[in-house]
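Lab notebook, page 48
Experiment: co-folding of the full assembly
Goal: obtain a model of how the components sit together before planning crosslinking
Operator: M.T.
Materials (sequences as entered):
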Amino acid sequence: MSIWEYANPVKFMRLSGAILPWVAAAAAICTVGGLVWGFLTPQDYRQGSTVKIVFLHVPAAMMAINIWVMMLIASLIWLIRRHHVSALAAKAAAPVGAVMTLIALATGAIWGQPMWGTWWEWDPRLTSFLVLFLFYVGYIALWSAIDDADSAADLTGVLCLVGSVFALLSRYAVLFWNQGLHQGASLSVAPGERMSAVYRYPLYLSMLGFFLLFLALLLVRTRTEIRRRRLAALQAREMRT
Amino acid sequence: MTLLSVHDLAVARGGIRAVEGVGFSLSAGQALILRGPNGIGKTTLLRTIAGLQPPVAGQIAMPEDAAAYAAHADGLKLALTVAENLRFWARVFGGDDGGIGTALAAMDLAALADRPAGFLSAGQKRRLGLARLLVTGRRLWILDEPTVSLDGASVARFGAVIRAHLAQGGAALMATHLDLGLAEARVLDLTAFRAVPGRRAEPAGFNEAFA
Amino acid sequence: MTLLSVHDLAVARGGIRAVEGVGFSLSAGQALILRGPNGIGKTTLLRTIAGLQPPVAGQIAMPEDAAAYAAHADGLKLALTVAENLRFWARVFGGDDGGIGTALAAMDLAALADRPAGFLSAGQKRRLGLARLLVTGRRLWILDEPTVSLDGASVARFGAVIRAHLAQGGAALMATHLDLGLAEARVLDLTAFRAVPGRRAEPAGFNEAFA
Amino acid sequence: MIELGKYAGTVLTAYGVSGLLLAGIIWHSIAANARARRALEKQVKHG
Amino acid sequence: MLALLTRDLVLATRAGGGFGLAVAFFLILCALVPFGVGPQTAALRPIAPGMLWIGALLACLLSLDRIFALDHEDGSLDLLATAPVPLEGVVAVKAIAHWITTGLPLVAAAPLFGVLLHLPGAATPWLIASLLVGTPALSMLGAFGAALTVGLRRGGLLLSLLVLPLYIPTLIFGTDIVRRAAAGGDPATPMLFLAGITALVVALMPFAAAAALRVNLR
Amino acid sequence: MLALLTRDLVLATRAGGGFGLAVAFFLILCALVPFGVGPQTAALRPIAPGMLWIGALLACLLSLDRIFALDHEDGSLDLLATAPVPLEGVVAVKAIAHWITTGLPLVAAAPLFGVLLHLPGAATPWLIASLLVGTPALSMLGAFGAALTVGLRRGGLLLSLLVLPLYIPTLIFGTDIVRRAAAGGDPATPMLFLAGITALVVALMPFAAAAALRVNLR
Ligand code: HEM
Ligand SMILES: Nc1ncnc2c1ncn2[C@@H]1O[C@H](COP(=O)(O)OP(=O)(O)OP(=O)(O)O)[C@@H](O)[C@H]1O
Ligand SMILES: Nc1ncnc2c1ncn2[C@@H]1O[C@H](COP(=O)(O)OP(=O)(O)OP(=O)(O)O)[C@@H](O)[C@H]1O
Ligand SMILES: [Mg+2]
Ligand SMILES: [Mg+2]
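Observation: model returned without errors.
Model output:
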């Protein structure tokens, strides 16, 4: 059985219905566990208790980017293979991605106040996140503005593709424009500059939790979209006869 | 010579098949009139044949660059004069400006040639939209309700234009509710081809994939 | 009781008189159909009587708040449902929501009440536009080409609605090219009233003042 | 209660805001899903 | 009248209705300014009041053609003009609906955008107050411009051109309020002027707009 | 193709066609900025490059919905899609026509507006050069946005929302050129980037726009 089989709405509903409770439970355990564990970590000698924000900030930032990538892949699958469920999955993921971006922005802003003495700084990392947020908003707005589902799926798919290119382009443009304050990637595999293990393991758990949370939300929202489509399809059929 | 042959065609609107299993062919000198109640899918069928939307199933075969499409909206620029409008379409279709005079005369617009299209009455606008067909130089005319808002005299004049086109080896596919006085035209009633709703192996769109 | 009396009316479009010297009167229970070739000025005349533009000359007399106007455009909001659309117009005309059910039933829209107007076919939209007349509670209906895009069954239904309206002491003034099957209606052909062009003592606009 | 030092406000706001946003999206997802399911069931029953 | 207001608000929240788009546009504009003038606080802070007001003004401007154009296209405006409601009332209600769907969200979102442009915190309440008092005038003046251009195909740019000069007094006093507040001064005087302008506009413009609308409908 | 270009240009010069409106909008915006930020040279000079570019961008943005909407409404777009011209070519020609009617006049008028905002004289040639190189990308990206939203009732604000983020790289490099030139630096590097973006956009966007248009026409 190929993976494409699951793009069939009926199979998807059955499979997603079966795994959803497990994913949701795992998401709850990991997210709550990671955040609580993170909250109980000792204070950093430099940043004081504000390090605890990292357990929200970094997973959210990571998911904000990954969800966009997932939407890009789903859009490509729709545009090339015309699997309806993957178009709906892209639609379903967008609001979650927007919220993740918002969390990264909000926690970053709150963190910036004590660390940099300002709520907002036009740092390249921050700025590219704002741009990413704009792309999410535009994508969601385009979906909701088009009545016909097939056109909406196609057009938002094209927008997602073009938007990805320009999101990357903006990232480089922004780097060119302003050198920033924001820390580099300290989770990188390069040894030496690694974050102390006290913070690293709860961070890993919290990242897993955010990922599972996204997965659970994605399943729920895709199921919602499928139901809405089914309702619309039944109504359209009834109307035609 | 066959100008259009349609085989087992299914077309969809709003993600649902409207008609399916439609088949016919049109040779030079023939006209076919599509009939059917409101909403059966005449416009959709014509748009599909004109290439504006992909068919859901079936084949459409016609010589390359043979068809000219005319719909409800005439594509007129109200700020341009009658002649300028025609000249634009003649050039887009690669013709020269010589045919414009003939087209204007055929639709009784010669006196209005230098008037901006915005100052025409509804019926005159429609006549200009039909005159456009004559400057395209295309042999297959695809016409959606061509006589809407024309009065009796203009309908008769349009009938004559169609007849002349057929006599020159052209063909015409038309959807209309009204009588055009074209006795030689065949009639295809689409009511028999109304698509049966339901889920398909090859859905036309979301509405069929999820029905 | 006279619901509308028009005396020596002249109306203008684009600054030029279209028809002049028009006079007629409509009592309760009467219907009048305006006829004439394209561009004679039927729409202009109806808009003037509805109060959307001032007459160039002549008098229009009717009881206050008696007329309801329905034009080509139905004024429907595609994002609202059928019932919501009607409810809006009922409230604007100061009616209660009770009449909506009757209006929906009269135009065979009851089954579609909760559907967004954007999902209706052209004929259904038109029926909704006509149902609006029933919720206005007005006695004089001014209708511009009311049966455009209606199929045969719907035209007959509309004829019945008009007849019921007349029987209840209403009146209707309509412009149409098609046959509505209203044998009892009088017909006024506007061709005889076509305005003679030229400069006037009382110009309708720049175009006449400078002619 | 664990000691948060002088940044207690900052940390708590960060957790609070994020919690609200997460709760919002979770609630929205579940509510919309329930609404869609009810609407579909109603349609299947009556339509 | 109330029916019209609720209908317009319902329409704004339905798909494609455009509720919240003005805020999104405002956000984008505020994000563009630093790209234009540079990211330094020193560069942003002095221009923040002006940019915030210009942003609000443009966000408002871009949605003006929605006020009448849709109703004109689908014929609702003709029917409303023949309905038993005064056209002045229709204009006023339309302007109110426009304000609720664009002005009010802008007011609500303004503090956030103030942060983006490094507006001093002390000035934020005054920013909100000035927008609250000033944006109704923007909507009402916009309704007048929209009434003037309603019949025109794509009047958008022309509409902006007609309305922008009318916005200048509001803009001047609005920014002055915020600028004074940011500099620690007393913004009461410009606030008074701003309130006066709004009162004047709201009292008189419905009549001008209704007159323009009548001309465009005939 | 040429017929389409000349038709669009002729239409732009006829009544209500909108030729010159972009420049007028640009002028008004440049006039608003001093009201917003204060008239002192010291206040204006540092923000002049950014404001000029933001003004050009907004003037361009406001006229975007004209690119396809009119042709869609009157049915021309359907007929063009069935005519023997590739849709990609139609999109490109439309974008060129938009650029000639809005971008080019802006380039020509830019020196004047530079003076209004106290841009240092040395930067003016670079302002012109950057606009000349950058505005074609704005028009082409705008055509893409317009193709995405062409079927929508009043897509204006949505169109802005979709297109503005796409404008950010162009804006960044464009202003950077002018800013560096105004500061006496060397603007060659950002100029190179800007030219690269424009080349990329002009080469690829017609295909994306034509694809979007096809979806909207069916
Ligand atoms: C609104 C503001 C902010 C945004 C949008 C933002 C965005 C991001 C992003 C996207 C990442 C992920 C980087 C990666 O995984 O490679 C990240 C990581 C991080 N951010 Fe922020 N940030 C913001 C403010 C701040 C502030 C104010 C601080 C603290 C002073 C901060 C500290 C960190 C740290 C420590 C990491 C982890 C870096 C790592 O280990 O990879 N951020 N931020
Ligand atoms: N945008 C749309 N979304 C969903 N369904 C639509 C849409 N447009 C049309 N339809 C439906 O598609 C069907 C076919 O429409 P089409 O316009 O082809 O009919 P037609 O035969 O041309 O009718 P008419 O005689 O009124 O011209 C109709 O039932 C209509 O309700
Ligand atoms: N905007 C306009 N500017 C100038 N003249 C116009 C304008 N609109 C219409 N006309 C002219 O006014 C005259 C009357 O038009 P009107 O719409 O009243 O005709 P009608 O009798 O309703 O025609 P139809 O049968 O097509 O509905 C026509 O000759 C038309 O050419
Ligand atoms: Mg049709
Ligand atoms: Mg008429």
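Interpretation: The mean pLDDT of chain B is 87.
Next step: discuss with group before ordering constructs.
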